[in-house]
From TrEMBL:
Protein name, entry field: tRNA (carboxymethyluridine(34)-5-O)-methyltransferase ALKBH8
Subcellular location: Cytoplasm; Nucleus
Cleaved signal peptide residues: none
Function: Catalyzes the methylation of 5-carboxymethyl uridine to 5-methylcarboxymethyl uridine at the wobble position of the anticodon loop in tRNA via its methyltransferase domain. Catalyzes the last step in the formation of 5-methylcarboxymethyl uridine at the wobble position of the anticodon loop in target tRNA. Has a preference for tRNA(Arg) and tRNA(Glu), and does not bind tRNA(Lys).
Region span, Disordered: 559-595
Cofactor needs: Fe(2+)
Biased composition (Basic and acidic residues): 559-575
Family indicated by similarity: Belongs to the alkB family.
Single Gene Ontology BP annotation: tRNA wobble uridine modification
EC main group: transferase
The entry's keywords: Cytoplasm, Iron, Metal-binding, Methyltransferase, Multifunctional enzyme, Nucleus, RNA-binding, S-adenosyl-L-methionine, Transferase, Zinc
Molecular-function annotations in GO: S-adenosylmethionine-dependent methyltransferase activity; transition metal ion binding; tRNA (5-carboxymethyluridine(34)-5-O)-methyltransferase activity; tRNA binding
Cytoplasm listed as a keyword: yes
């Protein structure tokens, strides 16, 4: 009877829920009074006080239920289960994993404790319903004191059907960023810290300032915060402290830096202090910037102009090295707070990005940290590949490049202009360079049972449609001209978008997606494409996915894409003999002699209200220099079209030359195709975020990351 009553309550509106809960508790209390008449010794005043408190707890419970539904889509229930949600006991309001574990384990053995980052609630699953019910009765409405700050909070608890939260996709370090652990010994750390006199030389010429967020001291040259630059003609007396020389010699010897720095900024942060997000001024310093963390570990936040953020734990005595994209494009800063959210299992031990692993997050109290940041003062204008965020290159005329998409509509327009239109224009030329199947894809197709139904999503010119004659293969592609080429080869293919394939769900034994998903411009669209592949598969069916890799040099081996950099003279001959094996990801143009070496990358406005970040311009996608390593995950890759000229449009730069001239063999219309190149582990992590598939295998193949999925 009681279970039916509770189930009835679950389906009520908010107001009705509150009334029903009050009625439920009132009747439960009345029954208890009948059974336990000896307990009715409370005074009328005490009784009213208890009733008032119960009503308050009920209101808070219902409010917590609606908060949970709004934030996580999880519905609370009224009957007892193994799983509880505990409001006011989250990382977001100062409850550490260690303290919550101690509170909860008093009532039984726990299977799971999940603490979402920056949320004021946590989830716990006990081994038995009885243990969970015991914790509910003991802790609901109970006041506890947060250990670190002494603040009193009241816990509000509800039952949930199950504890299940999706972890965030693991993140990689920003390109060009490196962290070296234990670069110095504790004794070296002690001596370096003692060498900085924060009190005794305030009147000396060495610049020492107490800023709002930290204490700062400069050596070699003073960094001027009024103009964010250095006065290169006024070096500070004394240069860099001598005690830094052994450390810098070690960095030079190990290859962490190429030139010895001549400027040092020492920052000291107390708990609760930080530094606003920023990029170091391009014209002030050279590419390499290194920072040594002393005294305590801390989490530093890096942010790409597209909004992507990476939180990195910098251990004590570690060295942060920023070069390339991480130095010039990403902002870095330290959020002013007294606690960092970190992985509990790696506390104080390992460099890593902080991900939303809700089963392993805790709070780490900050301590006083001192950083030694070394730079090399620049003596000539900066000529980096990010001109529109470079103060040395401001005002220079450069071709306008497309912006990174900020919403679904912009993403669709970007792909239409810099993927779909481009492949329609270059289809014939593109097809002439795509004729050698890759061995591991051939192996996958030949391993399938005879009679299998296989869909090639993004089939291009149909290179893989005729590999195994025992299969029933059908292809589809967004380019009509490429599909027409498939038809000329007597393959079955049709035009469609990989986001919406008109094939019945569960009808395919296998699917392949070769060099397709990296053309989708947002993480949501890339995930949706993989989800669509899974929809086509029957249970037990498999899918093979290839995407272009950020790492074009892997395990000390250069990819064929990089190896072919100097082979342009032989490319035409190789193509005519049909022996060349092109990079799988259709990334390389046939003629790379006119590679685009420029990019126009503006930043979108960055707004960080908590840290007062200064807004900057909007983002433009950089143009990649062909046959070179990548410096950005999102970029435009040139394709030099052979033969004829084209009108200048958004995705093509016109090059007009006399027909038959020598220049006409070297210069050609240059189209730009959008790519998102995948970091190691990124594709696998995206696939694992889908509950309907499992990753059978993941591997690296000639500059591409690859996975084989199985439909569950």
């Amino acid at each position: 009877m009681m279970i039916k009553e509770r189930n009835r309550i679950d389906n009520c509106s908010w107001a009705v829920q509150l009334y029903c809960w009050e009625d439920f508790w009132q009747r439960r209390e009345d029954t208890s009074k009948i059974q336990n008449t000896s307990m009715e010794t409370e005074t009328s005043e005490d009784h009213l006080k208890v009733q008032k408190m119960k009503k308050k707890v009920l209101r808070k419970q219902v409010r917590a239920q609606h908060t949970l539904m709004r934030h996580e889509g999880i519905k609370c229930i009224s009957h007892a289960t193994q799983s509880l949600v505990i409001a006011n006991a989250g990382l977001g309001n100062g409850m550490s994993r260690q303290q919550l574990l101690r509170i909860l384990e008093e009532y039984g053995a726990m299977e799971t404790l999940l603490m979402p980052p920056n949320k004021p609630y946590s989830f716990v699953k006990y081994r038995t319903t009885e243990e969970a019910n015991k914790a509910f009765n003991a802790l609901n409405g109970k006041e506890v004191t947060l250990e670190d700050c002494g603040q009193k909070i009241v816990l509000y608890i509800n039952f949930v059907e199950k504890v299940s939260l999706q972890n965030a996709v693991p993140t990689s370090l920003p390109p060009g960023l490196m962290v070296i652990e234990k670069i110095i010994s504790p004794e070296e750390e002690r001596r370096m810290l003692e060498s900085i006199d924060w009190k005794g030389d305030e009147d000396t010429q060495n610049a020492q300032k107490t800023l709002k967020h930290r204490r700062v001291k400069h050596f070699g040259y003073e960094f001027r915060y009024d103009n964010n630059n250095v006065d290169k003609d006024k070096p500070l007396p004394g240069g860099l402290p001598e005690i830094c020389n052994p450390f810098l010699e070690k960095c030079l010897k190990q290859g962490y830096i190429k030139h010895k720095p001549d400027q040092l900024t020492v920052n000291q942060y107390e708990p609760g202090q930080g530094i606003p997000p920023h990029t170091d001024t391009h014209s002030a310093f050279e590419d390499e910037i290194i920072s040594l963390s002393l005294g305590a570990e801390i989490v530093m936040d890096f942010k790409h102009p597209d909004g992507h953020t990476v939180a990195i734990l910098l251990p004590r005595c570690s060295l942060l090295v920023m070069t390339g994209e991480s130095r010039y494009l990403w902002t870095h800063g330290i959020t002013p707070r007294k606690y960092d959210v970190i992985q509990a299992s790696e506390l104080g031990h390992k460099v890593r990005t902080i991900t939303a692993d809700v089963g392993d997050l805790t709070l780490n109290r900050r301590e006083t940290r001192t950083s030694f940041t070394f730079r090399k003062v620049r003596r000539s204008p900066c000529n980096c590949i990010y001109p529109s965020v470079c103060d040395s290159q401001k005002g220079q005329q450069r071709p306008v490049q497309p912006s990174f998409p900020q919403n679904e509509m912009e993403a669709s327009k970007l792909e239409q202009e810099y993927v779909h239109k481009v492949y329609e224009e270059i289809a014939t030329h593109f097809s002439s360079t795509r004729h050698s199947p890759w061995p591991q894809i051939v192996e996958f197709l030949r391993s399938l049972p005879a009679g299998s139904i296989v869909a090639d999503i993004g089939c291009g010119n149909g290179k893989y449609l005729g590999i195994n004659k025992d299969l029933y293969m059908v292809g589809c592609d967004r380019s009509k001209n490429l599909v027409d080429i498939c038809g000329e080869k007597h393959f079955q293919a049709f035009v469609c978008d990989a986001l919406s394939v008109p094939i019945r769900s569960g009808s395919c034994d296998a699917c392949i997606s070769i060099a397709v998903i990296h053309h989708f411009s947002t993480a949501e669209r890339r995930l949706a494409t993989i989800r669509e592949l899974a929809r086509l598969l029957r249970p037990g069916g498999t899918a093979l996915i290839y995407v272009w890799a950020m790492e074009q040099e892997y395990k000390n081996q250069k990819s064929k894409y990089l190896k072919e950099k100097n082979d342009s003279k032989n490319k035409d001959k190789e193509m005519n003999t049909g022996t060349t094996q092109r990079p799988l990801s259709d990334q390389g143009p046939v003629n790379s002699s006119q590679d685009s070496a420029w990019s126009d990358q503006l930043l979108k406005d960055l707004k960080d209200e908590s840290c007062g970040a200064k807004p900057v311009a909007d983002l433009r996608l950089p143009v990649h220099t062909n046959r070179t390593s990548f410096h950005s995950q999102d970029l435009l890759v040139p394709w030099h079209l052979k033969g004829g000229t084209k009108k200048k449009e958004g995705s093509v730069d016109t090059v007009l030359v006399p027909g038959g001239s020598k220049e006409s063999q070297e210069l050609s219309p240059v189209f730009h195709r959008y790519y998102h190149v995948f970091c190691e582990g990124e594709l696998e992590a995206v696939c694992r975020s889908l509950d309907c598939v499992r990753v059978q295998k993941s591997y690296y193949d000639q500059g591409n990351w690859c996975v084989i999925l199985e439909k569950l």
